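Suppose a colleague, Dr. K., hands you the sequence of a protein chain of 332 amino acids and asks what its three-dimensional shape might be. Before reaching for any lab equipment, you can write down a predicted structure in token form. Begin with the sequence itself:
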Amino acid sequence: SKLCLTTVHLVWEGEQVRMIRQPGDLPKMKHYSFGGKGGNMYFVYFSCAFFTYNPLGVFLLPKFLYFILHKECCTMAKRALLVVSFGTTFEDTRKKTIEKCEQDLQNAFSDYAFFRAYTSQMIINKLATRDQLIIPNPSQALTQIYKAGYTEVLIQTLHIICGNEYHKLLKDIKNFKSKFHILSLGRPLLTTIEDYKQVVTATLAYLPSLKDKEALVFMGHGTSHPNFSAYCALEYMFQQTNSNIYIGTVEGYPTITEVLPKLLKNKTQVAYLIPFMLVAGDHALHDMSGCEPNTWQNILLNHHIKPSIRLHGLGENPQIRQLFISHAKEAL
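The predicted structure, expressed as tokens, is then:
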């Protein structure tokens, strides 16, 4: 053995530290920078010189240095997952839908700290006053995440379409772009053509097959945003599988007024009424069903069509929840 000066070069990639013989052996990546952000991965370069009595002893040291550097480096990239939904004041459906989606996303991103936010300030205020349940809006949640020192944030929206609520979220996020090293956003349920196809398959998998003179009528929330046409496109997709599937909305176009003539023309006798919303909340209970004369249920009864109510939000469907997880993963 002899005393010699040895230089060790270490590269940290994400959460992996490995030794290289010389800087020229750095990973041949398309994007990387020392001590900075490259693409979606951090590359931090360490070089240290030390004396050893055996040149081969150098290969024993990276294991020791790994634990020191790994602990220090990982603190450089604190990760947060923010799940954003419209919200609901109905506890029962919240537990079955929103909280199920949140739990599944937490499980899929277990190395991220979890946060939630609602976009409906009306719902936020009501929950705070009635139940003393404090849920932040997206801006408040992102401020909290920033102050806590998180540097990478993944946001997954539980909105159904790219409507008003989603675009309001986009404006909120824009104000925080400069505050985080990475700020990613998973798209709503219905965004791409493939999304529509997958949602149709996932939805029909948990619904009864239609018999003669039966129809499925989905109630969507609707929007005044130009993307209201998403519901018409979705109905078209559904009707590729069965022409007796229709979609109406509470706020926007089409409504039950447009759906009813089609049911009558086909001499429909039974219509399944199903919310096409994340939760089966206020609209499902008071606009789709209920004893008020203008509910969809009573409108059908007045036209001699028997309604069959299914009070299940989309968030109860595990395949729908998996689609949100896929959208989050694709955002990274």
